[in-house]
Amino acid sequence: MQAPQRMMPGGTGKAQVWQRGTGWAKRATQASHSGCEGQARQTAHWPGMMALALARSSLNIGSIYSWQATRSLPHLHPIPMPDDRPPTIDPAAAQRWARAAPAASPWLHEEVAQRMEDRLQWIRLAPRAWAHWEPVRGGLKAQELLRRRYPDAECFLIEEQAGRAAAAAKAGVAPWWSPARWTGGGVHAGAPPDAGVQMLWANMALHQSADPQALIARWHRALATDGFLMFSCLGPDSLRELRGLYQALGWPAPGHDFTDMHDWGDMLVHAGFAEPVMDMERIVLTYESPARLLAELRELGRNLHPARFPALRGRQWKKRLEDALVQHLASPADGGRLRLTFEIIYGHALKPAPKVRLAAQSAVSLQDMRAMLRGADGQR
Fold this sequence. Notes:
Elements: E1 5-7, E2 16-19, E3 28-31, E4 41-44, H1 49-59, H2 67-71, H3 91-100, H4 107-118, E5 129-133, H5 135-138, H6 140-149, E6 154-158, H7 162-172, E7 187-189, E8 197-203, H8 212-222, E9 223-234, H9 240-248, H10 261-271, E10 274-287, H11 290-300, H12 315-329, E11 330-331, E12 337-350, H13 366-379
Parallel strand pairs: 2-10, 5-6, 5-8, 6-7, 8-9
Antiparallel strand pairs: 1-2, 3-4, 9-12, 10-12, 11-12
Helix pairs in contact: 4-6
């Protein structure tokens, strides 16, 4: 079994990484898929997951698993980052998909959200208020889990598309006759004020953003000092079987490239977050037919690559694709079912008290000044 690898930042401003190699995803169990009869799921789980989590907590590596230790760490100044958007995402296509995505939570998103929610047990801070970024696509079942974990915390549901905003409000706000409406923290449809929450939860959204650095900056503004970000997204190993198939057939890429977790960590530091910690796992799903596999992919997203097929394809092309999927993705070990890999990246990071570079003239916002004064008072 391959041992975990850790990268400590020291004074470089780089992200901390806790990376599980492929050897950590050997044991597979079947997971059900609601609403899809006959669609068995083979999901790779973590051997010794509890031992790994406990070991990470006891290492005291300056993450939010050890809250008080983190408060004494100096804030690293943002490292230089290019302003270029991801070169393989078409912004217009990303915007169209953001508007057209159905008001439903894909199965994979719910599964990832459940695994990410389990990580919250190692975080000592209980937020007074938290924000759920795009809860409909990110997972409405996860919304229930988070409300049970933080029953007294205010919750903000952030959906920018009208149709999904209505679905989020309907699912997240209790009816007037429910006792839940009058107990615990309130649920609000809409974005919180700047620095208004202590946790921001964003599940499976970052990899579809045409301007991820701007999105991360928005998350940073929403968080209060000492608040933390929890997010997940797809990694570069996702759909590797499908990418190899398209390449062998001489077709354009089936999807845009996904960013590596090391780069996500650097973007977080550049945005002003402190000590981001990243880890990953690979989940292998199996499908009984090409039709089920393609339906799953349509539910998860669209091809946002600028060099994708420029026009619609016909029935003959679809038939060729389905035949190729059976030929190249079928696994004898799984009874001929089609295998597809998804790399899942998990990340979390703190928003530290702001620290201003000294110069002949320095400008500090009123919000940052208040945060620095509160931090100074706490250290006396």
